[in-house]
Amino acid sequence: MYNGGKIIVGIAIFVGLFVFPIFYNMGKPSAMPEPKLDTPVINQLDEKRCVESADYMRANHMQLLDEWRDSVLRDGNFVYESSNGKKYVMSLQNTCMHCHSNKKEFCDSCHTYANVKPYCWSCHLESKEKAL
Amino acid sequence: MNAILSLFAVIGLALIAFIGVKVAHLEFLFGTAIPYIALAVFLIGVISRVLKWGRTPVPFRIPTTCGQQQSLPWIKQSKLDNPSTGAGVIGRMFLEVFLFRSLFSNTKFELREGPKLAYSSTRWLWLGGLAFHWTFFVVLIRHLRLFTEPVPGFLHSIEALDGFLQVGIPGVLISGVVLLFAATYLFLRRVFIPSVRYISLAADYFPLFLIMGVALSGILMRYVVRVDIVSVKMLTMGLASLSPVVPEGISAIFYVHLFLVSALFAYIPYSKIMHLGGVFLSPTRNLANNSRMVRHINPWNYPVEVHTYEEYENDFREKMKKAGLPVEKE
User: Fold this and answer.
1) Residue B189 lies in a domain
2) Which residues of B touch A21 (CB under 8 A)?
3) How far is B254 from chain A, CA to nearest CA, in Å?
4) Which of A9, A17, A28, A30 to substitute to test the interface with B, most B CBs within 10 Å?
5) Residue B141 lies in a domain
6) What is the pLDDT of residue A129?
7) Does residue A27 contact residue B241 with C-beta atoms inside 8 Å?
8) Looking at the DSSP assignment, which residues form a beta bridge with residue B119?
9) Distance, in angstroms, between B230 CA and closest chain A CA?
10) Percent of residues, chain B, with pLDDT higher than 90
11) Residue B159 is part of a domain; what is its CATH number?
12) Residue A29's pLDDT is what?
């Protein structure tokens, strides 16, 4: 081996970088986030259904909110007709957060897990969690 | 032909994963076993290749000399292009590894009317290569968000910077798009420049297509075919914490992406992509040009038995005298 020291240091750095996640997560069991639906408003609902089905919301809520924003701000249209014919007022703070008043346990549980930082809250106010 | 073969090879790989998951339901194989095998092949392959290179003797200084070497004090030395010290070599290697300096000096020549020979610099390969490698690096780093919990803070900053255009939901990340375009440019360059096409082999096209496939499946997964990122993170965290789990309901495109990545990693040690280790071990780059200052002794030199003329004369002096031959010592 020629220049053995330098080469072994190089290999150690290389391997260290690639197995870094294994050491970083050692001994920390990863639990799947469970967004909580336990809020006073949701508990009082007869039919626990969001504006669309849970599966649809799980996959597409961000795009729905994006469409809502465009519809309200650009077209002045505040009414959303759901696929089952029900009508809702398109508003993050007054419609979504009315039921999901627990942003920390609902929104943030998955967003933090997946390292997603939606910029909703750079304009909107977070819900008044403490008041509830 | 080489290109078409490689394209079909990559499509074939994608189909294997797609059918394996959709029809045969081999989620465990494609989700955990193959990535682990690929990582093991990658690490062991790269290490053994580097060790093999390390065992190869480099007895003499063979750096490419691209400028004035160190000489008399009043002749200006080109310290980066012809380094004579360790610091100079480190500077040269740094610029080479991080900025591809040697590609920057790429020139082309052409015959113009006259006939006149004209040289000009061409920087497109440098620019394309730089865009490709750096975005690939950023994409790789960004994926750490799937392998760490809690996610370290610097990943937030990288992602915020990467998505600062705030186009669409989920926000377009610039690095992924640039990566796909740069890889496509590097491919088209091979196809449209005749001299480059002539020297392109299947081993040149295949990794390009593989990386394009990885980028494309990743982009589709983020913006079009949507996968459940929380389940995906469950799987990747299982991989990273050595306790693999396969959550249900992850769509097939994720497994296609993962399989293409696994194929890429397992392919690296046996392909041109090994330049990721090779660039550090290139004697034409990592040696200082100090042949005139330091004596470099061949490492495999062994003592050679010699029989000097003096000894020869001692052996045969009497006989030489009798034969009338001149001798040095009486």
Assistant:
1) yes
2) 144, 147-148, 240
3) 15
4) A30
5) yes
6) 54
7) no
8) B109
9) 6
10) 67
11) 1.20.950.20
12) 64
Question: SS3 for B140?
Answer: helix
Contact B150 A30 (CB under 8 A): no
Which token pair is B57? 């003797």
**Sign of the CA dihedral with B209 first, then B42, B129, and B170 last:** positive
Cα separation, B261 vs B275, in Å, equals: 18
In chain A, DSSP finds a helix count (H) and a strand count (E) of: 5, 2
Mean pLDDT over each residue of chain B, to the nearest integer: 91
Is B40 a domain residue? yes
Q: ipTM value, please give it.
A: 0.84
If one counts the domains in chain A, the total is 1
- Contacting A with CB below 8 Å, chain B residues are 39, 42-43, 46-47, 50-51, 54-58, 144-145, 147-151, 155-156, 159-160, 166, 168-170, 226, 228-230, 233-234, 237-238, 240-242, 247, 277, 280-281, 299
The answer to whether residue A113 neighbours chain B at the CB level (below 8 Å) is: yes
Determine the structural domain holding residue B227 and report its residue range. 2-101+134-300
pLDDT tens across B122-136, in order? 889 999 999 999 999
Chain B residues closer than 8 Å to A23 by CB: none
Cβ contacts of B291 within 8 Å, gap of 6 or more:
B60, B61
pLDDT tens digits, one per residue of A61-110: 888 898 899 999 999 998 998 888 888 999 888 888 888 888 888 888 88
DSSP letters, A9-65, are HHHHHHHHHHHHHHHHTTT-PPPPP------HHHHH-SS---SS-HHHHHHHHHHHH
Tokens found for residue B24: 């045969």
Q: Where are the beta strands (DSSP E) in chain B?
A: 107-112, 116-121
Number of domains forming the structure of chain B = 1
The pLDDT of residue A103: 84
Residue A26 sits at the chain B interface (C-beta within 8 Å)? yes
